[in-house]
Amino acid sequence: YEARYASWSTAQGLGAKIGAFIEGSANFLRAMGLPVSFAIALMSVFVASFAATTLDTACRLQRYVIQELASTFFPKSYEQESEASQLGGWNPVAWLRGKHGATIFAILTAGFIASIPLPGSPWGWDSAGKGGLILWPLFGATNQLLGGLAFLVITFWMWRRNLPVFFVAIPTVFMLLLPGIAMCIELFKPNGWLALRQWHLVIIGLATMGLEIWMIAEALISWPKAKGVLEPALPSLPSTAVLEPQSKEGRSC
């Protein structure tokens, strides 16, 4: 512990953090009788697998966001108008509403951000590939706010069904307030993002804070009216939908 966390300098850097996680986890496995080399290799595979699944999940979620935004700001009526114009089938907005176009757009934009150097660094092979660290300071707060949003959805789901919600509402408040307070500190402290003129962090941080305040306000307004009121039912499937044949043993794969 003293070797890894003797000072802030020894704990800084991505390599030091990942190394501490792998070595610490390997020590737990070593206490169970596994060889040290095998335990380190096993935890390294776990970390690599987690990174790979995170990339897949992030790409899929980004594709959903792109499709939702394209469908919201440019509904199908816009596509019909463009088809009558000279654009026809080359309308890029129609591509973003589809899963393939949205996936390609998500991969290209993420790849571009990841490949660029840090602000102030020259373009080159030595400095490229560090773009992911540009938005890294926002990751912790935004990630926790997503957890708070999930708790909020669960709280409303239970509240609509007249179920007790106190054991869910308490962590919801913590998950919404604490990340917001932490982001405000990073924004406005003497050596924070605003003082250092890190405008990309300032803009995204303020936008995130605005969305959080909006979300909390909507929840407070809807809270008195939501108790005991179930969500509207989903529309029924069209009669022309083709159902998969099922055998007597169950659903066919």
Brief overview:
By secondary structure, the chain is mainly alpha-helical.
Write up this protein.
By secondary structure, the protein is an all-alpha fold. The chain has two domains: 8-133; 136-226. The chain contains nine helices and two strands; from the N terminus they run H-H-H-H-H-H-H-H-H-E-E. The protein has helices at 8-11, 14-31, 36-73, 76-84, 92-97, 99-115, 139-160, 166-188, 199-226; strands spanning 246-247, 250-251. The protein has a two-stranded antiparallel ribbon with strand order 1-2. Strand 1 (246-247) and strand 2 form a beta hairpin. Helix 7 runs antiparallel to helix 8. The radius of gyration is 24 Å and the shape is globular. The relative contact order is 0.05.
Element layout with pairings:
Layout (H helix, E strand, L loop, with lengths): L7 H4 L2 H18 L4 H38 L2 H9 L7 H6 L1 H17 L23 H22 L5 H23 L10 H28 L19 E2 L2 E2 L2
Helix pairs in contact: 2-3, 3-6, 7-8, 7-9, 8-9
Keywords:
single chain, 253 residues, 2 strands
Q: Write out the strand line-up for the largest beta sheet, numbering strands in chain order.
A: 1-2
- Identify low-pLDDT runs: 82-88
Q: What count of structural domains?
A: 2
Tell me about the largest β-sheet: 2 strands, antiparallel
Number of strands: 2
Q: Average pLDDT value?
A: 83
Distance between the termini: 50 Å
Topology order in helix (H) and strand (E) letters: HHHHHHHHHEE
Helix proportion range: 55-70%
Rg measurement, Å: 24 Å
Number of helices: 9
Overall 3D shape: globular
The amount of beta strand, in percent, is: under 5%
Q: Supply the helix-strand structural class.
A: mainly alpha
